[in-house]
Amino acid sequence: MFHPDHSHSPPPPIGEPSLRSIGRLFPYLWEFRGRVLLALALLIGAKLASVAVPLVLKEIIDALDKPRPEVVLPLAFILGYGILRFASTSFSDLRDVVFSKVTQRAMRRISMAVFQHLHALSLRFHLERQTGGITRDIERGSKAMSSLVGYLLFRITPTLLEILMVAGILFVKLDWVFGLITLVTLAAYIGFTITITEWRTQFVRRANALDSEAYGRAIDSLLNYETVKYFGNDKYEARRYDNSLIEWENMALKSQRSLGMLNIAQAGVIAIGVTLMVLLAADGVVKGTLTLGDLVMVNAFLLQMFQPLSFLGVMYRQIKESIADVERMFALLHRPREVEDAPDARELTVVAGEVRFEHVDFAYNPDRPILHDVSFTIPAGHTVAAVGSSGAGKSTLARLLFRFYDVDSGRISIDGQDIRQVTQDSLRAAIGVVPQDTVLFNDSIYYNIAYGRPDATREEVIEAARAAHILDFIEILPQGWDTVVGERGLKLSGGEKQRVAIARTLLKNPAILILDEATSALDTKTEKAIQGELLEIARSRTSLIIAHRLSTVVEADEILVIEAGRIVERGRHLDLLAKNGVYAHMWALQQQAEAEDSAA
After folding, report:
1. How far is Cα 391 from Cα 104, in angstroms, rounded to an integer?
2. What is the CATH architecture of 339-430+510-600?
3. What is the pLDDT of residues 561-581, one digit of tens each?
4. Can you tell me the distance from the alpha carbon of 597 to that of 585, in angstroms, rounded to the nearest whole number?
């Protein structure tokens, strides 16, 4: 059913980034649990080897730091040093190789899930959305997922693990003060990083939002290129785009300045910690409580620890931004569907193709009802037309039959089956639509016609083009079937686009046909040329014709006259004229207008 309480709800708000995003990623990663566990084992092995390197280096230095070094070099320690260095690097590389399939597959599966979910969302969502902003969110979200896993699992975790191991070794082998300085430096560093990053995240996230807004505005302007030119609004569009960029620039500058502050604070903490550790170790060597090897070991540990730690701020910021991007993408994925299949939905079985509307009420918004108690039947193989002024609710009939929306009350059935109780896929497979504004893919004419049934043979596609009277036009084109129609089909005329739409609907070969003001955007001559083709394909099918021009429906088996969402008259063309009511008045006005056009 249609739920007015969330019909116009905005996308779920993106609150403070949280670890919920990581939890949402877990099922996608755990599919390859064997690879995940192997990668973690390699990670631990790499860190153990890395921590062992300074310990071996200490033994080498101490063995050589004697008044008369042994004639035999500490060969075993030197070989061990080289092996550990190699193991540390190679284990890390092997870990990346093992885990790469996990992240790539997870990215693919999540991107696919979002793409399919967007197609499953209601028409209302797609009429309100901004295409550029959504595609940017998906693109950033899928990339952020890879960054999030990489930073958390293979950067932050091993770095913290190494620091804790080093602090423990220094505490046991040297003095508790070394371990304490290590932990205090780490705590101060993390404290500064989190505090300043939390403060600057507002600038980063606002900059991202403005980036999506500017990108969406640019895409929208380019898609409406002709409209921009019609009204000479090039400079106006440039100003709107630049206004978005100005605000984005200000936020980006604030983000950059706060980054500088963070880097300075981090460098200061590390410098103090390193200086204290080296000073303490040097003092121990002078006093004889520590060996030269201990000093070298402490120095090696500091280099190993603080080198990755210096990137902790960058990684933390990236994690925060990645979580925000992933949450934005998951917000799309978890946006509720307005129209869903019933739990026990079955396939639609079309036997004859009778369509029945029974006491249908519908409103796009609760405060603005569109249809009131609409009832009519389209017998199998018959044609029913709905006519009336703009906004009367004619096109809403087509949208409800195709189940872009669900009725508020009443029911719509096909061969006695309530369309809410059958699967949307089977319902839509049985219905063909020739819309008023045919939108084509920026691909070849062949692709656009074959889209009606992608598994059709070339012969079937050619036959559909012949039946739609567009084959001769295609064959005289320089590139023939390979002619690219341009964005939204802009390279074709209105009549050519409508014939492509007719051809692909014929190729689909639906049992039920909807012609939604299919010729209202065409000139009178083109309309008359296509009108016969439309009536021919409607003749053998159960058809609903939505029309503004009455001349297109005079041969319909029944005509419904709709005013303010109610059926005010119904009957055949001649019967309605004889009633001398609303339909007769509309007919007279249109005939007069056509006569004046012909005279002009």
Report:
1. 49
2. 3-Layer(aba) Sandwich (3.40)
3. 988 888 888 899 898 888 888
4. 19
